[in-house]
Specification:
By secondary structure, the protein is mostly helical. Helix content is 45%, strand content 0%.
């Protein structure tokens, strides 16, 4: 009777090798970011273009 252990070991190593390569081929996740206007006038122009309100918030820095 032939032992299946060497065949199973080779199969397991092949699966591990393929699973290690898979994450390296994935596209990097795009991190959502917020860009700020460099000037107040640019912020107003962008808000008018997008038809959104401008919200001004103070964090309490004096």
């Amino acid at each position: 009777m032939k032992r299946p252990l060497p065949t199973l070991a080779i199969l397991a190593l092949a699966v591990l090798a393929m699973s290690a390569v898979a994450p390296a081929q994935r596209k990097p996740k795009i991190k959502p970011t917020v860009t700020f206007a460099s000037t107040w006038d640019a912020a107003i122009e962008e808000a008018k273009l997008l038809n959104v309100p401008i919200v001004v918030h103070s964090h309490g820095f004096y």
